[in-house]
């Protein structure tokens, strides 16, 4: 494990571990509280496995009342809490703390309501992403955000990280598909935000919660919108002689006003790994591959297929193949969705990055990543959501070789800083967590970060929820409340103060 500065554990809390566990068992009886060190190993990390920490105690509540009482107890006794969904986060967002209760929401795994007339599903946060679609697909509906981990990741975790997926170019991220939440504040208060309707008056608190990475509240219920499956959906495999040519084609397609349901890109390393793993029919003799899916009425799809083919040929495409059946379309996507595990077969370890750039900068960024690969002496496989500029470079390394993990992290940091330099941002869907925490000043000023922390203080003034994540320097709420005095003068001196 590499060195990572986390909040210093409270010796007082560590000394009360047995007492805290006994108190929590009164709230969550039976097997709902885990204190055995061996049993807690299953919770010591999330998908960012380079960092591990055994929690103080693990609690698995089954009801909203239990969640409320656990959080109220922790608030009253100044005990930190780390919320956890399925643990598939790739940014260390669910990394435990030695002096914190790890609150696992996996037992909240029921779908509460399906309403096809209103086109909504109410689900508990432990329901898997794919589980929502499976529950409604027999009636011709589906849930649009579909991250590659959709078979395992939970809908509550999707809310925490604002997860995306291959179809988010046209249908949006989690934030565009969540209508309402039930959350529990650190004080134990239960609050409902939004609902089964499209929008609500007042402050947009829903936007605060989606993507808040467990720093503001614990999600206990999610209301999502479901969509009717399109009349027709067809996908193209388009091979290119270079990643730069593929990137130029992406930019041209969007500039032409075509918004595919999904547009994904893979470089040669990822193409060969996925083809060997899934046998999706990918061409092996190209340097980059685009998967472009178009959906809607059949006439519209046929028209757009012709336009996309035109742009592909104009950018030197060496291979174009259009799916001729639903099975073939699904096979095209199966290779892309299995790309991450497939790359795991060709490298002992890989470090999955997540950054976003303007689409027009794809060729420049891909070229620069190639140069960085040479500089750091580490391979990189590119698999990403090309249509919305969300990059997922997989940096290849061997953790058993001294210094390679550190080089991989430095390489990843350079990629993320490059994203910001060209007008992008540090994350598209994986969140900040601990992975990008210390890079936040590359994108935000100190005033920006303080303003974000003021939102944190409004919900969690004691900083008990998921501390050590997102913010590189955490200020006390009292410090953030102080007014800045410049040259002895308060701002807006004409405003009455009390």
Automatic annotation (TrEMBL):
Ranges of residues in domain FAD-binding PCMH-type: 51-229
GO molecular function list: (S)-2-hydroxy-acid oxidase activity; FAD binding
Keywords: FAD, Flavoprotein, Oxidoreductase
Top-level enzyme category: oxidoreductase
SUPFAM superfamilies in the record: FAD-binding/transporter-associated domain-like, FAD-linked oxidases, C-terminal domain
Cofactor: FAD
Assigned EC number: 1.1.3.15
PANTHER family: GLYCOLATE OXIDASE SUBUNIT GLCD
Protein name: Glycolate oxidase
Organism ancestry: Bacteria, Pseudomonadati, Pseudomonadota, Alphaproteobacteria, Hyphomicrobiales
């Amino acid at each position: 494990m590499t060195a990572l500065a986390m909040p210093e554990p409270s010796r007082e809390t560590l000394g009360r571990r047995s007492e805290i566990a006994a108190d929590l068992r009164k709230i969550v009886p039976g097997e709902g509280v885990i204190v055995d060190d061996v049993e807690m190993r299953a919770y010591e990390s999330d998908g960012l496995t380079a960092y591990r920490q055994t929690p103080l105690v693990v609690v698995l509540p089954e009801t909203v009342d239990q969640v409320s009482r656990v959080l109220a107890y922790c608030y009253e006794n100044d005990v930190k809490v780390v919320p956890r969904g399925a643990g598939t986060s790739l940014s260390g967002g669910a990394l435990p703390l030695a002096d914190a209760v790890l609150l696992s929401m996996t037992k909240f795994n029921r779908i509460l309501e399906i309403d096809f007339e209103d086109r909504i599903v109410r689900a508990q946060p432990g329901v898997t992403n794919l589980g929502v679609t499976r529950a409604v697909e027999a009636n011709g509906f589906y849930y649009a955000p579909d991250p590659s981990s959709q078979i395992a990741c939970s809908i509550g975790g999707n809310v925490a990280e604002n997860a995306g997926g291959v179809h988010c170019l046209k249908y949006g991220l989690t934030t565009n598909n969540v209508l309402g939440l039930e959350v529990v504040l650190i004080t134990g208060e239960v609050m409902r935000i939004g609902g089964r309707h499209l929008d609500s008056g007042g402050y947009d608190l829903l936007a605060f919660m989606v993507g808040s990475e467990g720093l503001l509240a614990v999600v206990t219920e999610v209301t999502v919108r479901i969509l009717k499956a399109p009349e027709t959906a067809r996908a193209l495999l388009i091979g290119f002689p270079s990643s730069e040519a593929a990137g130029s084609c992406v930019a041209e397609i969007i500039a032409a006003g075509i918004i595919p349901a999904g547009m994904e890109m893979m470089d040669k390393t990822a193409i060969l790994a996925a083809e060997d793993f899934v046998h999706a029919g990918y061409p092996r003799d190209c340097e980059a591959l685009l998967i472009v899916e178009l959906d809607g009425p059949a006439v519209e799809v046929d028209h757009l297929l012709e336009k996309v083919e035109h742009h592909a040929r104009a950018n030197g495409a060496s291979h174009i193949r259009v799916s001729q059946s639903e099975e073939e379309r699904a096979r095209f996507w199966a290779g892309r969705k299995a790309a991450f595990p497939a790359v795991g077969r060709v490298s002992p370890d890989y470090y999955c990055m997540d950054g976003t750039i303007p689409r027009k900068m794809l060729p420049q960024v891909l070229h620069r990543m190639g140069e960085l690969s040479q500089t750091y002496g580490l391979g990189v496989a590119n698999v990403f959501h090309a249509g919305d500029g969300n990059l997922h470079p997989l940096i290849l390394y061997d953790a058993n070789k001294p210094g390679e993990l550190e080089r991989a992290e430095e390489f990843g940091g350079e990629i993320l800083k490059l994203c910001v330099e060209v007008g992008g941002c540090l994350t598209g869907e994986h969140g900040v967590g601990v992975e990008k925490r210390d890079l936040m000043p590359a994108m935000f000023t100190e005033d920006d970060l303080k303003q974000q922390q003021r939102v944190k203080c409004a919900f969690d003034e004691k900083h008990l929820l998921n501390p050590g994540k997102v913010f590189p320097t955490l200020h006390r709420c009292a410090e953030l409340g102080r007014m800045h005095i410049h040259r002895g003068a308060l701002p807006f001196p004409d405003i009455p103060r009390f």
